[in-house]
């Protein structure tokens, strides 16, 4: 180190043309030094310490040099600030205190929304969800999600709420009209069971999560929420007495997705 020339600069001095990458140098005398990369000048590597001092290192003294580019230097970093974004997400859910009335479920969503400078965001989503993998209870969810960001930087904590409507697609109470048996003695077709409509109902889910801002314009989002969904279905055969299926799903839901 006695051959190094150290020039002290005013703390905080910087040039916008210099990269903010971190550099790590291993010298020929086995010493390792690290700081902010500032470029080259007259066969010297320039590196800045946290206290604002600049170190000029002759190139012949350096055995190995490695640059760690700052994520802020990437041209598409934080591309979704104050902008329209698109996204997708997949989720897993499990029932809460409902015994054998339901099993784990899964879903997938596509969304479009707008982000206001990482202070608030609003997104509309369309997806597909199965609330009971063991005995399919599938829905087409259409939802709107509002979020409030709680932190700044690359990792953004947020809280929010998702609300919408879940249209039923397939469930154990809905029987296709073609199923059943033909009774020749009565010359009539008897359904296997009284057919209900596919049903549906509103849903709401308070959310907590974290968003990791991507270096290439693709943000990763991890969310946990309490999914509460009402389901209602009725018999639709005119000769049957009126009957209803009325359920309330209560599920912990974990989802992972990306916004771009």
From TrEMBL:
<keyword id="KW-0732">Signal</keyword>
<protein>
    <recommendedName>
        <fullName>Outer membrane protein beta-barrel domain-containing protein</fullName>
    </recommendedName>
</protein>
<feature type="signal peptide">
    <location>
        <begin position="1"/>
        <end position="19"/>
    </location>
</feature>
């Amino acid at each position: 180190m006695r051959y190094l020339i150290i020039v002290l600069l005013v703390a905080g001095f910087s040039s916008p043309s210099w990269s903010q990458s971190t550099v790590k140098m291993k010298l020929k005398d086995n010493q390792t030094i690290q700081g902010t990369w500032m470029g080259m000048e007259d066969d010297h590597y320039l590196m800045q310490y946290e206290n604002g001092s600049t170190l000029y290192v002759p190139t012949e003294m350096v055995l190995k040099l490695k640059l760690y580019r700052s994520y802020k230097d990437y041209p598409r970093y934080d591309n979704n600030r104050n902008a329209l974004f698109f996204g997708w997400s997949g989720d897993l859910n499990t029932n809460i205190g409902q015994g054998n009335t339901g099993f784990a479920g899964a879903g997938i969503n596509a969304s479009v929304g707008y982000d206001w400078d990482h202070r608030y965001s609003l997104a509309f989503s369309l997806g597909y969800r199965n609330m009971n993998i063991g005995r399919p209870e599938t829905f087409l969810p259409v939802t709107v999600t509002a979020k409030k960001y709680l932190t700044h930087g690359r990792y953004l904590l947020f809280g929010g709420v998702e609300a919408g409507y879940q249209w039923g697609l397939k469930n154990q109470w809905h029987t296709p009209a073609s199923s059943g048996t033909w009774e020749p003695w009565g010359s009539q077709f008897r359904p296997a069971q009284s057919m209900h409509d596919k049903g549906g109902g509103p849903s709401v889910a308070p959310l907590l999560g974290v968003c990791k801002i991507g270096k290439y314009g693709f943000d990763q989002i991890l969310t946990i929420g309490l999914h509460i969904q009402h389901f209602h279905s009725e018999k639709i055969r005119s000769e049957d007495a009126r009957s209803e299926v009325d359920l309330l799903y209560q599920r912990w839901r974990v989802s992972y997705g990306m916004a771009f």
